[in-house]
Write a structure and sequence with these properties.
heterodimer, A: 3 strands
């Protein structure tokens, strides 16, 4: 099938001016321009956004959840990175 | 002629967006002066985060306990990260990071003058977290509403992460203030030396501020230097009182009519002297940055060499 030759793209939509683009899904397309048009048709039929990004899925490098231990565990024993770790007396606690 | 009319129309829609509290995004048309103004402010902010690691970094090996060391390390690490967020936000304006760093190192770009003051004692590390980060937070909270999208979003992230910086500093001050007579003296001395420079962090008074008016008009800045400074002065008074330390400004006095504290005159001669290169540490800070940058050259070279080798291998395989 010809379809299998189309590339996979990931779609990101900015729902409102000022907010980050957020991943909404993916689609197959021939190139970036076509992916953008398809994304408009597929993902913004109800005015979901004001801007679309398309990125080739093959260009995304992702960490795997099985590796999350070595990626994220080191944060677990560092509660001092959070404001709540520092107990301040009531009169000055609003900083 | 048509180009002019087009430009006017673009500028009109830009100003309408600003007027409607909409963010400006990287690919939007914007006046060149808006772009330049943002680039100056965001890169200066980024440089401040990076240079700001030096006075505290100096205490990483000297912190009085393992807990304090871990906390300080986390804070300094945050500053590096915040510098990165800000350089990235500035890069969306089309200027490469290498150009910004070169401008810092040549002295063409500025960073917050406060970092030209030395951290001389452990009390200074407390005062820096409490007062310097405290002042920075007042400014950054306001900048969460800046008109440039990437800058505003960076500020949101930074404010969230930075909330512990001020608290750990105040905690250090609290310990010293409740400690021995010598420790109380150390706390008072640090407060005395860092209070006024912290007030200067908000920049010249509104009437003397070169960039303020237009930055306010374009909503790059949302509150004036003096408004932000007043906020900081007001919030700091009860914090000093709670520590039981003496306020460094003898003229500090509640004004019920204004609903603010009146305060003494800031030494603007000192402010301009430090900005113009004559602070205690100006040369040292830049020299250290240049040295560290050069010392890292081999890493950048190695990355490039590795990249080249990989490309050659791929080419050979096909």
């Amino acid at each position: 099938m010809a379809d299998s030759q189309l590339e996979l793209f990931e779609v990101f939509i900015r729902s409102k001016r000022g907010l980050d683009h957020k991943h909404v899904g993916s689609l197959h397309a021939q190139d970036h321009a076509q992916a953008l048009e398809y994304a408009r048709d597929c993902y913004t039929r109800r005015s979901e956004g004001v801007s679309i990004w398309v990125v080739k899925s093959s260009d995304i490098c992702a960490s795997q959840e099985e590796d999350s231990e070595c990626f994220f565990d080191p944060s677990d024993d560092k509660p001092y990175r959070l404001a709540g770790y520092y107990r301040l007396p009531d009169p000055v606690d609003n900083m | 002629m048509q180009g002019d009319a087009n430009d006017r129309e673009l500028e009109h829609s830009f100003l309408r967006r600003i007027g409607e509290e909409q963010k400006i995004e990287p690919k939007d048309w914007m006046p060149e002066a808006y772009r330049q103004s943002l680039l100056r402010q965001i890169s200066q902010h980024a440089h401040s985060e990076v240079i700001g690691m030096q006075p505290e970094g100096n205490y990483l090996t000297r912190a009085p306990s393992l807990r304090r060391k871990a906390v300080l390390l986390a804070k300094v690490q945050d500053e590096a990260g915040h510098g990165l967020y800000l350089y990235s936000a500035a890069e969306t304006l089309g200027t490469p990071r290498s150009e910004m760093i070169a401008a810092l190192q040549s002295g063409a770009a500025k960073y917050a003058s406060i970092f030209n003051y030395p951290a001389q004692t452990w009390g200074d590390v407390g005062a820096i977290g409490w007062l310097v980060d405290g002042a920075a937070i007042v400014n950054q909270v306001s900048l969460q509403r800046t008109s440039y999208g990437p800058y505003a979003r960076g500020m949101v992230r930074i404010c969230k992460e930075e909330s512990f910086h001020q608290r750990q500093g105040y905690e250090i001050m609290l310990m010293l203030a409740q400690g021995s007579a010598a420790q109380r003296r150390m706390a008072q001395d640090s407060l005395n030396r860092f209070y006024w420079p912290a007030l200067m962090m908000f920049g010249p008074t509104d009437s003397a501020s070169a960039h303020s008016a237009r930055a306010m008009q374009w909503k790059i800045k949302r509150e004036t230097n003096d408004e932000l400074r007043q906020k900081f002065i007001d919030q700091t008074v009860p914090q000093i009182e709670f520590l039981g330390l003496q306020h460094p400004d003898p003229e500090i006095c509640w004004n019920a009519e204004r609903n603010h504290y009146d305060h003494g005159e800031i030494d603007w001669d000192e402010f301009y002297a430090v900005i113009n290169g004559n602070g205690h540490c100006n040369r040292q800070r830049l020299a250290h940055h240049i040295r560290a940058h050069r010392a890292g050259a081999w890493v950048r070279d190695a990355v490039a060499a590795h990249q080249q080798k990989l490309a050659q291998r791929t080419a050979a395989a096909t």
